[in-house]
Amino acid sequence: MMLKKIAAxxxxxxxxxxxxxxxxxxxxxxxxxxxxxxxEGIAERRQEQVYxxxxxxxxxxxxxxxxxxxxxxxxxxELVNLLIAVARDPAIASEQPTVFLGxxxxxxxxxxxxxxxxxxxxxxxxxxxxLVRDESVKSVMFDYYGFDEEERQxxxxxxxxxxxxxxxxxGVLSNEQEVFMQDAWLFFRPHNFxxxxxxxxxxxxxxxxxxxxxxxxxxxxxxxxxxxxxxDQLEAHxxxxxxxxxxxxxxxxYAREIQAPAAGxxx
Length: 267
What we know:
The chain has one domain (2-266). The longest helix is centred in the N-terminal third of the chain and has 74 residues, at 15-88. The chain has helices at 2-11, 15-88, 97-106, 118-126, 135-151, 155-169, 175-184, 193-198, 203-214, 217-266. With 267 residues, the chain is mostly helical. Helix content is 80%, strand content 0%. The radius of gyration is 32 Å and the shape is rod-shaped. The protein is built from ten helices and no strands.
């Protein structure tokens, strides 16, 4: 309809009317474009809220897993410290016999929690990371997940340290002791460690195993490396936990910041 009016005005050489009608068309197009931009902006802000909420949930899921890893590595540090003490004085093994037997194999175990990174990876792979407008929030998230990726480069070294320990410790326990520990205490965990400390077993067999440990100079010399491994793991987990809390704080603050304006727009 508007184009017909413009054509009619041109035929009548009514240039003033032509100008007005073209101006009306241009204003209409600009208003339509701005309306589309406004609607798109609302959709993006809502999508941003969804992503931030999912990131918060991911980090909240990670924190207990990291705290568990810290507890577990602290336990294993205690195991290797016990082995070092028994290597100096085999009689110490009888004070916590079950823990000593488990420590022979478990002192070199390591554990790294798997972070919940699905949302962040989705943001990066789809280009939707642009929806998060706060650069400081993005920086904190890159630091959190980037640190975890960097630490995983040391996993082969950790596995090699574990394997070397198993090789050196093989035969310290008798076959009967190995079977007993596998059946009764396959793994020491934070929830069962106190029970293991108070559990009793054959004192004579424990004393013999302690003497076999002391009689293995290569194993005794290896124990400080195992201890260093556990200390490194603890440091990494504590650093990971600190980054998790920092990320959660930044995300939570940003979530509160973007909630109120978006809520007002949607009403």
